[in-house]
Amino acid sequence: MKNPYVDQPTDRHPSLGVRSKEPLNAETPLELLAESLLTPNEIFYIRNHLPVPMRLSDDTYTLRVGGDGLKSRRLSLGDLKKRFKQHTIVATIQCTGNRRKDLMDSPSPKEIKGLKWEGSAIGTATWTGVLLRDVLIAAGIDESDPNIRHIRFEGHDEDITGSTYGASIPVSKAMDPRGDVLLAFEMNGKELSRDHGYPLRVLVPGVAACRSVKWLKSIEAHAEESESFWQQNDYKSFSPNVDWDNVDWTSSPAIQNMPVTSAITEPAPGRTHVVKRDGDDHLTVTVKGYAWSGGGNGIVRVDVSVDGGTTWQDATLKKIDQQPGRGWAWALWECEVEIPKGHTGPIDVVAKAMDESCNTQPERAEGIWNLRGVCCNTWPRIRLDISD
Amino acid sequence: MKNPYVDQPTDRHPSLGVRSKEPLNAETPLELLAESLLTPNEIFYIRNHLPVPMRLSDDTYTLRVGGDGLKSRRLSLGDLKKRFKQHTIVATIQCTGNRRKDLMDSPSPKEIKGLKWEGSAIGTATWTGVLLRDVLIAAGIDESDPNIRHIRFEGHDEDITGSTYGASIPVSKAMDPRGDVLLAFEMNGKELSRDHGYPLRVLVPGVAACRSVKWLKSIEAHAEESESFWQQNDYKSFSPNVDWDNVDWTSSPAIQNMPVTSAITEPAPGRTHVVKRDGDDHLTVTVKGYAWSGGGNGIVRVDVSVDGGTTWQDATLKKIDQQPGRGWAWALWECEVEIPKGHTGPIDVVAKAMDESCNTQPERAEGIWNLRGVCCNTWPRIRLDISD
To answer: Is B7 a domain residue?
Structure first.
């Protein structure tokens, strides 16, 4: 049998933290993530479920539109660019399993299956394309039709049996005039790279990135969600008491909007950072990170604590001005954390974000532990060691 | 000076828990709250900021529509009912300060100002009225006009200086075809009572109830939010390190969507419930409550723990089927909580809900403490005492 990974992109940045090689799954170096509001394309995290498809080109590519109640048609990239207004939005996308490591490292003895993503399976870019809404309207969609409840996406990436990647979103999100769902061909002003879905991908802002299907092959309207493995039996959240022996995949909805989260990117988590007091009575340490929430909920505030969450210090936010309910992009934050007078020895720094809907993050993993390790948004934590 | 509270409603139910008499602020008996998906009008919580206005009647009432870019007009109740399509939605409304008691009783030595609401400043009803969106369209609103960013509401209720209650919502919510913002005249199929805003109130589903202005006097479109005290200097959330000495009201946005929350209604919180084991090795206790989230995020799951959150049991949900993103109504839940084998003595039961966006509740108060005591959504907790 032919190796399905024979023709994969060769321009992959060596600094990416590889979580799996075939398919490639790799994340940005954490310490670079909070350096700029837009993540450079070269180091943007890559989440591939299947081999990157071969033989796609601008010239021959066509998108198939169809399904219940839509006029069946094929659109070339040229058609899309010429016939529909182009839009650019700034949006963060995040792998549903970002920060899975923090759930895997929590005390539960039960098994989580999934890639051990740290905190960088997330990134922000400007995305340019046409509105899915406009394409659906041109295809004659009738939103009031009770048989049109989900918009399914299929990718060109396929497994060895020929089965393709797929996902769907509710028609309400697809058609929302403020939903900003794009069929995107540019990322940060450049043509999409092969790893990011060249020549065309879906970009569903505010929603788990697994629904932003890359290498888009078709769009269909249906009464039911995508029948794909990833929609039905994969990206779902369950109670901590559900494990691989008793899971009923039909009992929980497919994840769409993601919860509020944040991460500390500097000093990096996972090791102890020695800080010399050098006789200073007043000692501060610069702590940086990002914060993001799904559903268009912009970040309102990030608080930082050095006493386990009893008292809190405000972080300064850097963010792009976006409308209420359309806060698709993350906030970067920075805090000059005050170390208590006279303290020496280890000290933990934790952070938490609050979004536009006043949602906050859970303190610890036990309450949100789930067998797929998705939606981890516990308080991020780093350890300092203050020495004299 | 005339007593502004001289002509107040006399049909107030004696079982309501009164938190202030003038203006009346009173909540439903907690143990009745989770008994039915729709809260009976008679025991629905009442939150008045000012005296209930006098001399409003069906016949003489008119609503003023105006502001930037709207045709200035007056509409009678008859006009509204005849000229616009009537809609009925099921929605929960919640006072921004619901469960403030749990923040007030938390360890912080700093002062919270506000009514000491327990867990019942929340209720669910069917609301019948016309869509605010339709009224704004008829008044010629141009959504793309950059000077129209907020819809302001003014009530007929006024203080002794003649200043009225007011609030606003973003135009995006007001005009969202799936936002379901009503100008409502019926509650659970009956004409609004005086305490609930007769003859007309705003009903903004998914949003803090302080924006659902009662006794509606006027609607205006503006570039800026309502200038009312309640929009500018009251219903906002701040970091735990902000107190009454250092608060800058301009530094935080007015609360709109509310975060995910839940409460235990049975056994009632606040006292210890003795449960006799009577030799039973397998002992369960029925625990009931409600769960709700703002922004149209339906409740997906409620988990219950008897070991402080290390392990969890699933609750059974009872809820109304609503579309994704339009989950305006709460879920009621019930759990046969298993008490660990052989356990005697005190045991705490905690609960937490997860909504459609996978947001969950914070465990304890310290991280969400705020000087106005708003948006309290910590894990609810009751104490049992298991005796032999």
So the answer is: no
B262 at interface of A, judged by CB pairs closer than 8 A: no
Same structural domain, B269 and B229:
no
Q: Residue B375 in 3-state DSSP?
A: coil
Statement to judge: residues A222 and A340 lie in one domain: no
Question: Do B342 and B306 share a structural domain?
Answer: yes
Domain housing A78: 17-251
The verdict on A369 and A272 lying in the same domain is yes
Q: Are residues A116 and A243 in the same domain?
A: yes
Domain count of the fold of chain B? 2
Please spell the DSSP secondary structure of B2-28, one letter per residue: --TTTT--S---TTSEEEETTTTEEE-
Q: Which residues lie closer than 8 Å to A59 by C-beta, 6 or more apart?
A: none
Q: Between chains, do A357 and B326 touch, taking CB under 8 Å as contact?
A: no
Tell me the CA distances in angstroms from A140 to A59, A69, A70, A81, A149, one per residue in order. 26, 7, 6, 19, 15
Closest CA to B114 of B129, B99, B128: B99
Tell me, rounded to whole angstroms, the distance of Cα A96 from its chain centroid: 6
Q: Can you give the pLDDT at residue A108?
A: 84
pLDDT tens string B154-199: 999 999 999 999 999 999 999 999 999 999 999 999 999 999 999 9
Average pLDDT score over residue span B219-245:
97
A11 part of a folded domain? no
Contacts of B317 (CB under 8 A, 6+ apart): B291, B299, B301, B302, B331, B332, B333
- The residues in B 20-59 lying below 8 A from A, measured between CB atoms, are none
Same domain? A290 vs A309: yes
HSE at residue B249, side-chain half, CA atoms within 13 A, is: 12
- For Cα atoms A73, A74, A75, give the angle at the middle one, nearest 5 degrees: 120
Same domain, B60 and B141: yes
- CA separation for the pair A296, A178 (Å, rounded): 10
The residue among B196, B224, B251 that closes a domain is: B251
Is the separation of the CB atoms in A54 and A99 below 8 Å? no
Nearest beta carbon to residue A303 from set B240, B300, B357: B240
Position B1 in a domain:
no
- If asked whether residues B243 and B280 sit together in one domain, one would say no
B69 vs A61, residue with greater confidence: A61
Q: Is A17 helix (H, G, I), strand (E, B) or coil?
A: strand
pLDDT digits (tens, 9 = 90+) for B305-340: 999 999 999 999 999 999 999 999 999 999 999 999
Which residues in chain B are closer than 8 Å to A253, comparing Cβ atoms?
Answer: 300, 324, 356
Of A251, A278, A312, which residue sits at a domain end?
A251
Between the CA of residue B108 and those of A354, A386, B373, what are the distances in Å?
Answer: 20, 27, 12
Give me the CATH number covering residue B308: 2.60.40.650
Q: How many residues are there in chain B?
A: 388
Assigned token pair, B278: 């009577």
Q: What is the DSSP letter of B251?
A: G
Interface predicted TM-score (ipTM)? 0.96
Strand, helix or coil for residue A279:
coil
pTM above 0.90, yes or no: yes
Contact status of B87 with chain A (Cβ, < 8 Å): no
